Amino acid sequence: MRLVDHHVHSTLAATPDRATFELLITEADRPGPAGTTQFDSQLGFAIRAHCAPLLGLDAHAPADDYWAARTARPEEEVADAFLRAAGVDHWLVDTGFKGDLLLPLDRLSGGRDEQVSEILRLESLLESVAAGATAQTLMTDFRQALTDAVPHIRGLKSIVAYRYGFDIGPDRPSPREVQEAAARWLAELETGAPARVSDPVLLRMLLWEGADTGLPLQLHTGYGDADLELHRCDPLLLAPWIKAVEPTGAAVMLLHCYPFHRNAGFLAQVFPHVYLDVGLAVNHTGAASPGVVAESLELAPFTKILYSSDAWGPPELHYLGALLWRKGMAAALSRWVHAGEWSTADAVRVATLIGRSNAERVYRLA
Amino acid sequence: MRLVDHHVHSTLAATPDRATFELLITEADRPGPAGTTQFDSQLGFAIRAHCAPLLGLDAHAPADDYWAARTARPEEEVADAFLRAAGVDHWLVDTGFKGDLLLPLDRLSGGRDEQVSEILRLESLLESVAAGATAQTLMTDFRQALTDAVPHIRGLKSIVAYRYGFDIGPDRPSPREVQEAAARWLAELETGAPARVSDPVLLRMLLWEGADTGLPLQLHTGYGDADLELHRCDPLLLAPWIKAVEPTGAAVMLLHCYPFHRNAGFLAQVFPHVYLDVGLAVNHTGAASPGVVAESLELAPFTKILYSSDAWGPPELHYLGALLWRKGMAAALSRWVHAGEWSTADAVRVATLIGRSNAERVYRLA
Amino acid sequence: MRLVDHHVHSTLAATPDRATFELLITEADRPGPAGTTQFDSQLGFAIRAHCAPLLGLDAHAPADDYWAARTARPEEEVADAFLRAAGVDHWLVDTGFKGDLLLPLDRLSGGRDEQVSEILRLESLLESVAAGATAQTLMTDFRQALTDAVPHIRGLKSIVAYRYGFDIGPDRPSPREVQEAAARWLAELETGAPARVSDPVLLRMLLWEGADTGLPLQLHTGYGDADLELHRCDPLLLAPWIKAVEPTGAAVMLLHCYPFHRNAGFLAQVFPHVYLDVGLAVNHTGAASPGVVAESLELAPFTKILYSSDAWGPPELHYLGALLWRKGMAAALSRWVHAGEWSTADAVRVATLIGRSNAERVYRLA
User: What residue stretches are annotated with the Amidohydrolase-related domain (chains A, B, C) (predicted)?
Assistant: First the structure.
C-alpha cells in the first residue's frame, strides 16, 4: 500500500556535516553531554537498523560506517533511495520552517512518480506581509495574501503551540483588538526585532482566518523542541477553540500529539471535525513506536486518524516514518486479527483509511 | 465467574433507529463526517466481532447485516441475549440519565436470576426537589429527599466532573453560601432555565451531603462526552476534597478514569477510601482494551479495583463490557502467571476480587 | 552485569513489626480498608514471587509464611541476602529521610564488596542549620554547611515536589527575598513549629545553591506518598527552572517520574543536562513494570537514563528494584533484538549504559 504523508517537510538541499546531522535526528537544539552521540537513541538505532541496508551496509552498522556511506553519495542519491523506499504517493509539505536549507518543492519528488502539494504555515505568511503593513492594514494584507495562496495549497498549518500554547482562548479577536496588537508588534519590528509573531491576539486571528478558508488546518500538538512548553501543548487545552470553530467547516488536524495522543483520540471521537496523527513520535520512539501507534488506535474513529512522518531534512526520516508506521500498524492489526477481534478484511481497510484514504477525503486529493 | 457490574445504566426500552444507535456507540453527540459510520471504531468492530454471533451471524458480519439481524428481533429478546451472556449477578444501576428512554429497573433483569440495585445521582435528586423549594429550604429539602432515598439505594453518583470539573475545591460550603447559591439558581429557574445544577457551591454541597450518608459515592472521572472539559476531569485535581472527606467514611469510587487511570491508581493506593474502575474505556477501546486493563493493575491495590461496564442503552454494551474485561484480565493475568510473576491461585483470587468481591464488600451486597 | 543504584536509601536497622512492614511496601501512610493487606498489590506479589525463594520458601508463598520466615532471621541476615542478590556495586544513598530507623551508611554494605556514597538532601541540610541561624545568616550558614559537605558527597537531592510543587518558578531569589522568607520561617520555628521548610523562596534558594555546586541534583518527580499533590509534580512544570539552571553545569536527575515518565523522556531529550529514572515505580508496578520500563526507553537518549531502586527500609526493595529492572530491560531489549530493530551488541551496551555507565559518568564514580 502506498501512503499519503499528510504532514512532512522537504529534504536537505545538500549533504550536512556530522554535527548538523546529529541535531537533525533529535528535537534538542544543541549537542548532548560530551562523549555522547545522538545516534544512541531509538531514532539513531532505527537509522542503523533500517537505513543502513539501503546504503549497502549491514543492518545495525556502526554510526561511523553509516556516516561514511551516507556522505560518500550525493545527497540527491541518498534522498532518492529513501524517498523511493518510503512508498509515498503524495507528500503534503509544510513549507514554513527553514525552507532555505531544503530542496524546493518542485525538486522534492525527483524523477519519481510522486505528487507534492503545499501546506502553508499561517505564522510565516503573516510574518511575510508584516514588512509592508501598518497596524490598520495588517489583517487585510494577511487576508489578501491568504486568499491569493488558497488556490495553490492543500491546507494550512499553525504553530500556535510553539508561539504561545493551547491555552490561548477560543474567541475570534475583534478588528480593534487585532489593530492594537498589530500596532504593538509592528512597533517592535521597527526596533529591529525579528519578524516572529507570538502575540496571542494575532495568533488567534490566524487560527480563525485559517479556519475561515475551510481548508484543513494542521496544528502542531504535543512533543517538539525545547522552544515549546509541553504542558501547554496538550490538545485538551484547545477544546474551547475547537468547539467554537466547528461551524467554519474546517477540519482540525492534530499533528504528532505525543505524549497526549490519547487526549487527541478523545477529541477525534467527540468532535466531528477533529483528526489526529502520531507523526514525529513514531520516528523518535523507533523500536518502541508500535506501542505509540497502538495507543493512537484506542478512542479515535478509524476515519479520523492519518499517517504523517513530520520528516524535516534528512530523507532517512521520510523513509523511517513510513516504515515504522507500517510495522507498528502491522503489529497491532495482526495481533487483533489473530485474537479474533478484527477480520483480516477490516485490518486491510483500516490500514488503507489511515495510510491514505482519510487524507484523500479530508484534503480532497482524489 | 459471575460479575457484579457496579456502575451501569438500564437498557433501551425500544428498538432504536440506526442513526440513534450509532450515536449510542460513541461519546460524540452528533454524527461524524459525511460518509463515515460509528461502526468504524474499536467499539463498532467489537460489536461485529462479539455480538454478531449471539444474533446468529458470523463474527465480523458487516454492520448492515448486524443491523438487519438486530432489528429483526424485539428489543427485549436482544437485551435478554446480551444480558444473559454478560454473566452478571448484580447490576448497580445509575438511574440519573435519560431514564425515560430505558427499561425501568424492575424490568431490567427480565426473567433472569439477576439482582438489580439503584445508584442515585445527586445532581438529579437536587434538580427534582428544586421546583418546590426556596433558597431557605433547598438544602433541607434535598437532605430530606436523600434521607428518604437511602434505604432504597446502594450508593450515590455525582457528575461534578461534567457540571464543573474536579478543580472545585475541597470545602464543605456553609449554610449561608448554600442559601446564596440556591437563591441565584432558583431565580434562574424561575426565568424558565432548565433545572441543571452547575453552581460549584451547590455541587460541593452535594458531594458533602452524599459523603455524609456513608454510602459509596461514585464519581464520573475522565473520558466522557463533549460536554466535559477533559483536562478538568483528572482525578488528581480532586485530591484536596478526597483528603477532606475521608473522615466521613464514604468510599470514593472513581469511575472510568481513562486516560487518567494511572493517576487514579495512585489515589487508590495512597487513600484508603479510594477505588477505581476502567469501565466505559474498555468498551470504547475494544481490541486495544487489554492495554488499558493492564494499566489499571499497576499501582492500585487489588482490593481497590472494581468491574463496571458503564453501559447505557444498547444491551450490546452490557455484554461487551463484561466480555472485554474478562478477556483483558485473562490476557494480563495469564501473561504474569506464565512469566512466573503470579501464581495461578492468586490470579483467580484477584480476578474474583475485581470482578465481584470488592464490590460486594464496599456496597455491602452479601 | 553489576549495577549502580543511583538513588536509594539505607535498610532497616531492626526487624519491623508486620503493620510497619505493610506500610513500607506501599506509599500509603495508613492501613487500607479493614480486612485488606498491602500484600495484595503488585509489590506484595513480587515479594512473594521473588523474595520468598531467597528465604528458602517456594515462589508465591503465602504472605503469612513469608512473614514467619522473614522474622525468624535477624534483620542483618535478611538484608545481606537481598542486597547481595541485588548485584549492585555502588549505592548512592539519600540520607535525608528518617535515617534514625535505618542502618548508618558505614554498615549498609555489610561485609560485602559494595561501595556506598552519600547523596545529601538540601531541605534536610537547611533544616539542620536553622536552629543556630538568624534571618541574616541563614543563607550563608547553609552555604557554609553545603561547602563543608561537598567533599564527602556524590550528589544532592531536593524534595521541592513534596514541599511545594514544580510550579515553583525559575528565578534565583534575591538575598533580600531570602532574608525576608528566612525571617518568616525562623519566627514560625520559634513558636515551636517543626523545622520543615516549605516556603517557595527558600526552596528555590536551595535549588539554586545546590546547582551552584555543580554536583548532580536529584529531584523527586511524580509518584510518591499522599503528602504530595501529584499533578504539581509533573516535571514539565519545572522546565522554566531547568532552562534557567543549565549554565551552572549541574546535571538534573529526575527520579521515579511515573506517571510522567514520558514527559521526563522529552526533557531528557531536549535538555543536555536532564536525566531520568523510573525507580520506585518499577517496584510498585511489579509484574506490570516491563511496560513502565519500556515507556522510559522512548524519547530519552540512552545516555540519559539511569537505574535506581529508590528502596527505603526493607531490603526486599533493594533487591526487587534491581531484579524487576533487569527483567523489564531484558523483556524490552530482547523483543527489539528479535524483531530486528536492535543488534544484540547494542542491547548489551544500552543495558550497561543505563545499569551503571551513565551513573559512573554523571557522578564521576570511576
Answer: 162-365
Question: One-letter amino acid identity for C259?
Answer: P
- What gap in Å lies between CA C294 and CA A345, rounded to an integer? 31
**Residue of chain B minimizing CA distance to C259:** B262
Is any Cβ of chain C less than 8 angstroms from the Cβ of A291?
yes
d(CA A240, CA A207): 13
Each residue of B279-301: pLDDT tens digit? 999 999 999 999 999 999 999 99
> At which residue does the C-alpha cell 485535581 appear?
B237
DSSP assigned state of C151: G
Closest partner residue to B341 (CB to CB) among C30, C284, C287 is: C287
From chain C, pick out residues whose CB is under 8 angstroms from the CB of B353.
Answer: 40
- Cβ atoms of C211 and C248 within 8 Å: the answer is yes
d(CA B100, CA B13): 8
Q: What angle do CA C35, C36, C38 make, to 5 degrees?
A: 150
**CA–CA distance from B167 to each of A61, C162, C332 (Å)?**
52, 20, 38
Q: What percent of chain A has pLDDT over 90?
A: 97
Nearest to A207 by CA among A240, A249, A245: A245
With a cut of 90, say whether residue A57 has pLDDT above it: yes
**Bond preceding residue A216 cis, omega within 30 of 0:** no
Backbone angles phi, psi at B94, to 5 degrees: -75, 115
- Calpha distance C346→C333 (Å, rounded): 9
What span, in angstroms and rounded, lies between the C-alpha atoms of A245 and C271?
36
Strand bridging mode B3-8 / C252-256: unpaired
Residues 6+ apart with CB under 8 A from C32: B272, B301, B303, B304, C26, C38
In A, minimum Cα distance to B63 occurs at A346
Q: Are A301 and B41 in contact (CB under 8 A)?
A: yes
Reply yes or no on whether the pLDDT at C151 is more than 90.
yes
Angle (nearest 5°) at CA A123 between A121 and A125? 70
Low-confidence residues in chain B, pLDDT < 50:
none
Q: What is the Cα–Cα distance from B206 to B132, expressed in whole angstroms?
A: 18
CA A278/CA A265 separation, integer angstroms: 10
Cite the beta strand spans of B222-365 per DSSP E.
252-256, 274-276
Query: Which residues make Cβ contacts (< 8 Å) with residue C360, sequence separation at least 6?
Result: C4, C366
Residue carrying the nine cell digits 553531554: A33
B258 touches chain C (CB under 8 A): no
Contact check, Cβ <8 Å, B239/C229:
yes
From CA A278, how far away is CA A137, in angstroms rounded? Answer: 38
pTM confidence score: 0.98
How are the residues of chain A apportioned to helix, strand and coil, as percentages rounded to the nearest 5?
50, 10, 35
Report d(CA A100, CA A118) in Å as an integer.
Answer: 16
All chains having 3 or more CB pairs closer than 8 angstroms to chain C: A, B
Q: What is the C-alpha to C-alpha distance for residues B227 and A343, in angstroms, rounded to an integer?
A: 34
Handedness of CA B303, B305, B311, B316 (dihedral sign): negative
C-alpha Rg value of chain C to the nearest Å: 20
Q: C4, C359 in Cβ contact below 8 A? A: yes
Strands (DSSP E) found in C164-322 = 217-221, 252-256, 274-276
Cα distance between residue A144 and residue C25, in whole Å: 65
Whether residue C289 contacts residue C310, with contact meaning beta carbons closer than 8 Å, is answered with: no
Q: How far does CA A100 lie from the centroid of its chain?
A: 18
Q: What is the pLDDT of residue B96?
A: 84
- DSSP per-residue codes, A306-331: -------BSHHHHHHHHHHHHHHHHH
State the cell numbers at B53. Answer: 454471533
A15 burial via Cβ count (<10 Å: 0-12, 13-18, 19+) = middle
Residue recorded with cell 532505527: A46
Distance (Å) of CA B358 to CA B210, B213, B279: 21, 20, 15
